[in-house]
Amino acid sequence: MHAFTIKDMENLSGIKAHTLRIWEQRYRLMIPKRGDSNHRVYDNEDLKQLLRISFLYHNGFKISHIARLQQDALKALALNQLQRKPFGSLQNQLLEAMIDFDDLSFSQALNYAMRQLGVEECMLQVVYPYLEKTGLFWLTNSAMPVQEHFASNIIRHRLLTEIDALPRATGSPQRYLLFTPPGEHHEIPLLFIYYMLKKAGKNVLYAGAGIDTDTLQLIAGRPVTHLFYYQITNFMKQQPEEYASRLCQDFSTQQVVAGGPVTRQITNRLPNLTVLNSLQSQLDYLRKV
How far is the C-alpha of 258 from the C-alpha of 155, rounded, in Å? Predict the structure, then answer.
């Protein structure tokens, strides 16, 4: 069982802590347990209940009506509304399935989103918001690494299937080498970049996660025009700006493209460096290549 604070519940559900306290007092809804210091503590089942309540509340149901529902009725109503507004709660479905290690439910929700929205919109509207919520789990020490690995592996395999289904590039003079730096093992954004580049007809050489400079030297000896890396965290001794500058120096005849939140720390504007430090800048770049 994981223990969530009321602030965690706010961040994960979108329902303000102040509102939760009011619902608790007025409707006897979401009654928490109490920790050693008498602060509110919630568990996995509480979180799943609140995710369903949040979905219904944000889709027009009055909280007075929701509060009267038994657990089975609440779940049934949420599922019924989900069929009418299938995309609104898919992030929460993925989150619930991750908490319970429910690979079937996780895969079904992801596959449904892919079919209905297409790969690009599924990633933007469902997977990325889900990953942001998963990040909140990490920040609050509420998720085990195995949970993230469980879910990420399913997403990874689905993206690889979509990538393999795209036709091979022919005639493009550009060839992108994709990788993450040493210590960076978050691979899903890089796989999405792979998908977008291949869809645009570019040649892609996918090196994968945690690639050191010596390995890059070996791989980039092949005809490569762009080195594109993605970085969410930094576990290297080098600072992000130093790392980017070194890459630009070592591969001075090639273009270096740096993406991910950590690249906001890069201020140097070198001739062969492109910095994409926001999701929108990455999308703009990928849609124009």
Answer: 23
pLDDT at 222: 77
- Helix-, strand-, coil-residue percentages of the chain, each rounded to 5: 55, 10, 30
| Class of domain 87-165 as given by CATH | mainly alpha
Give me the phi and psi of 159, to 5 degrees please. -65, -40
| pTM given for the model | 0.76
For the domain bounded by 1-85, which CATH number is listed?
Answer: 1.10.1660.10
Residue with tokens 């492109």: 274
Q: Rounded mean pLDDT of 280-289?
A: 92
Banded model confidence at residue 140, pLDDT cuts 50, 70, 90: very low
> What are 104-125's pLDDT values in tens digits?
999 999 999 999 999 999 999 8
Locate CATH 1.10.1240.10 in the chain. 87-165
CATH of segment(s) 168-288? 3.40.50.280
Q: How many CB atoms lie within 10 A of CB 92?
A: 25
Token pair of 249 as six digits: 């120096």
The span from the CA of 193 to the CA of 171, in Å, is: 20
